[in-house]
Amino acid sequence: MTTSAPSLVDHLDILEAHAIFIIREVVAECERPVLLFSGGKDSAVLLHLAVKAFAPQKLPFPVMHVDTGHNFPEVIAYRDERVATLGLRLEVASVQEAIDKGRVPDPGPLGMRNRLQTVALLDGIARHKFDAAFGGARRDEDKARAKERVLSFRDKFGQWDPKAQRPELWQLYQGRVNAGENLRAFPLSDWTELDIWNYIKRENVPLPTIYFAHERPVIKRDGMWLAVGEFVHPEPGEVVERHLVRFRTVGDATCTGAVRSAAENIDAIINEISVTNVSERGATRADDRFSETAMEDRKREGYF
User: What is the pTM of this model?
Assistant: First the structure.
């Protein structure tokens, strides 16, 4: 007797159930969790899952945005809309505040700030005494992400040691946090970018408009198309062009590139992602592309 392969719906149901199980387990074990919300597609799905995990009650913990100050306006508008619609409590961990306090060096008004998020994140966790932070990272994003456990424990300085993580055999998780520790929980660890988009389609998860093809002034810099705007200005020799583009990931506007695309809806994006062999971070994030160990170095410092 032969059996057919599981359908896409079955696959997404399994991923959803596992993610919700992780979220509930962490909330049961920890006293002060928070959900990291960037306004990107992965954190949008994570937020959707968290809301679903505790429905019909409101989300029993806040969301926190680590704000570089160099955001795409569409993403901030989306963040604020989600917070208002879902009745969320929003905390903001500000890179600009860390700069003003002398906690991190000032890269200048147009300088890249992604590497500075770590201090703002750790300050936000310490200020609110959060002992667990949900993040939307996936293992297929980056080599360092692939080393991550679902529950990633950090020492009293917020730092990550890949050799000091707890085993997670048979999807059994040890979520108890020891004194001085905190943990990062990654319920989307086993999801792929394609899974994310298929789930967004199935669940009708709202997203910032920046993810869909639109015409925009861009410049070619370091092999990427950067959107010209408040934080990106053309340098001598750079030519401003107008192209139909979309973004596969969101972040600091100074280092997050667009891809040329005519994908104006989710079905077109799914078709586009199905044939690519380059991760979204590898293709469009300058801060990760210039070093083989960029993400791992940041994670050791305390980045999510």
Answer: 0.85
